[in-house]
């Protein structure tokens, strides 16, 4: 059994690697060879223990991602098993792994749903997850020339912009008026308004994953010509951005598709350059298996990690 620490993972993968792994996961989901169990949270004193699992028979692995999150931060672990032999393959510290797979999912959405000729990216949020969002969208859409990042804290957005070579803005509305807009915040209340959006935008909402939290206001969903998510089963549990509009009669679950259907060509996502398209990302265990299996493969090739 291989043990990979955070520093091991960081040196094994690139955004391009992550995109390929997560796009493959979406394709296998569409083929019906992946079973995914939505995240469940157990309440702790001041926090929660989250558990999510999947079996990817196309990849030949099964496993679980679990993490404890509370006042002291969060600690993530991914455990992989061989789907045929039931052997434990690896235990992987999962924070950096999670950043890769979450960013890659947004990148896959950008590849399949951004309008032709998209050249600008706006990011609302500049925390730990935001960096890989930018790197993966850039990898998916090499034509991106302009990147604007907004955060409520000036020091945070300026440091982020300097690190990634992008431009900071003090206006969320300015960041929202671009070709691809990513929200990656911990806000409980909407940070993106529909009346800020230009025609043809792709909105990727990747931050909130609790029913009580929203990053998008109702106008975003009202203006959207196409809405998709990573997992409808999971979205009905976690996506406040979709749950509340459905409850208010502004959206119907029958109108919500899964990104895997678009990736596999089963459903047409964007139908016109002027369409506003929404991808709601909560994060699913199938992605953790895909990116984790790739990290293990690379680690064994390079002699990285520790055998237990």
Tally of contiguous helical segments: 11
Assembly form of the protein? single chain
User: Which secondary-structure class do the elements indicate?
Assistant: alpha/beta
Radius of gyration: 18 Å
Strand content: 25-35%
What series of H and E elements makes up the topology? EHHEEEEEHEHEHEHEEHEHHEHEHE
Ends apart, CA distance between termini: 5 Å
Helix content: 25-40%
Unreliable stretches: none
Number of strands: 15
In order across it, which strands form the biggest sheet? 9-8-7-10-11-14-12-13
User: Largest sheet at a glance?
Assistant: 8 strands, parallel
The average pLDDT is 96
Shape: globular
Your description of this structure?
This protein is an alpha/beta fold. It has eleven helices and 15 strands. It has an eight-stranded parallel beta sheet. A seven-stranded mixed beta sheet has the order 2-3-4-5-6-1-15. It is globular, with a radius of gyration of 18 Å. The N and C termini lie close together (5 Å).
């Amino acid at each position: 059994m291989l043990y990979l620490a955070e520093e091991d993972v960081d040196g094994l993968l690139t955004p391009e690697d992550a995109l390929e792994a997560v796009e493959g996961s979406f394709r296998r989901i569409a083929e019906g060879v992946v079973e995914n169990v939505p995240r469940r949270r157990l309440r702790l004193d001041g926090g929660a223990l989250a558990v999510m699992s999947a079996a990817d028979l196309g990849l030949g692995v099964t496993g679980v991602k679990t993490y404890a999150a509370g006042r002291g931060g969060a600690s993530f672990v991914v455990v992989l098993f061989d789907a045929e032999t039931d052997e434990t393959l690896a235990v992987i510290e999962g924070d950096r792994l999670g950043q890769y797979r979450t960013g890659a999912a947004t990148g896959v959405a950008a590849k399949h749903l951004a309008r032709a000729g998209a050249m600008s990216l706006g990011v609302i949020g500049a925390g730990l997850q935001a960096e890989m969002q930018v790197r993966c969208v850039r990898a998916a859409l090499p034509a991106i020339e302009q990147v604007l990042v907004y955060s409520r804290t000036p020091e945070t957005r300026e440091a982020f912009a300097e690190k990634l070579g992008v431009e900071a803005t003090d206006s969320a509305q300015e960041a929202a008026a671009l070709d691809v807009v990513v929200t990656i915040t911990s806000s409980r209340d909407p940070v993106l308004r529909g009346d800020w959006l230009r025609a043809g935008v792709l909105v990727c909402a990747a931050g909130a994953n609790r029913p009580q939290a929203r990053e998008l206001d109702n106008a975003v969903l009202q203006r959207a010509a196409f809405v998709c998510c990573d997992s409808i089963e999971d979205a009905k549990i976690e996506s406040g951005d979709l749950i509340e509009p459905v409850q208010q009669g502004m959206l119907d679950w029958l109108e919500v598709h899964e990104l895997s259907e678009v990736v596999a060509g089963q459903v047409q996502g964007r139908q016109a350059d002027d369409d506003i398209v929404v991808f709601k990302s909560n994060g699913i265990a199938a992605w953790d298996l895909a990116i984790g299996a790739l990290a293990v493969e690379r680690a064994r090739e390079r002699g990285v990690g520790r055998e237990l």
